[in-house]
Write a structure and sequence with these properties.
By secondary structure, the chain is α/β, with parallel strands linked by helices. The chain has nine helices and ten strands.
């Protein structure tokens, strides 16, 4: 279990996060959802260890991780821009992190991730030859071979469209279930959060507006902000789709 207890963070006297308290069970997929500037990415960075909270405690399976470095935590992230190495082949990108830690995943385990993510035919390609969805799968494979305790994803679907987006969503759900991998996703898209996650954390002005199952968030929004934020965002997406068809 990952526990966040009374997490707070300020920048230049401005409160970014205030009294964040959540528990995430092993193998759960949790999306962090909220408007721009609500503190989503800051919270993700604090969990990862890129940022240090001003107050609060981070525990993983009962152990205090608050003062541990990113490396010591054993969490890992797939960034929005994938952060792949353009001078390396797909295969060399996947195994890059194993150079200094060769015993984390065996060759057989690496091959399993390659097949799981459908990358076999792309192994000798350079990164510029790949589509956005293929790059996302390479980034996922490179992270998974390092066997993270917690997988963090920063807007993993924002650059993808249609069938490709749905395919990556299914892969993320399959990986979380098969490996009981706790997965935390930052997104601005309620539809993405509600169809991908077991639970949703909605943040507004740095505070928890609601944290619960997707069903509860949809059927029992905790307050007017949650209700309007989700409805407005879904309506905006609907209007964008209608506008495309009307051209």
């Amino acid at each position: 279990m990952l526990e966040l207890k009374h997490i707070e963070k300020s920048f230049q006297g401005r409160k970014i996060l205030e009294d964040i308290n959540i528990n995430i069970e092993q193998g759960e997929i949790v999306s962090i959802l909220g408007p721009s500037g609500s503190g989503k990415t800051t919270l993700l960075n604090i969990i990862l260890g890129l940022e240090e909270a001003d107050k609060g405690i981070i525990c993983y399976n009962g152990q205090d991780f608050t003062k541990l470095s990113m490396t010591q935590r054993g969490f890992n992230i797939v960034f929005q821009d994938y952060a792949l190495f353009p001078n390396l082949t797909v295969y060399k990108n996947i195994i890059y992190g194993l150079k200094n830690h060769p015993t984390i995943s065996s060759k057989e385990e690496v091959e399993e991730f390659i097949d799981l993510l459908g990358l076999r035919e792309h192994l000798n390609k350079s990164i510029h030859q790949l589509s956005g969805g293929e790059k996302q799968r390479v980034a996922l494979a490179r992270t998974l071979v390092m066997k993270p305790k917690v997988l963090l994803l920063d807007e993993p679907l924002s650059a993808l469209d249609g069938i490709i987006k749905e395919s990556i969503k299914e892969k993320i759900k399959q990986i979380a279930k098969e490996f009981k991998l706790t997965t935390i996703i930052v997104t601005h898209d309620p539809e993405e959060a509600l169809t991908l996650s077991d639970k949703v954390l909605i943040i507004n002005h740095g505070k928890v507006a609601q944290f619960g199952t997707t069903t509860k968030v949809i059927e029992q929004p905790a307050n007017e902000f949650v209700k309007q934020f989700i409805l407005n965002q879904l309506e905006l997406k609907r209007n964008n789709i209608l506008r495309l068809f009307s051209k």
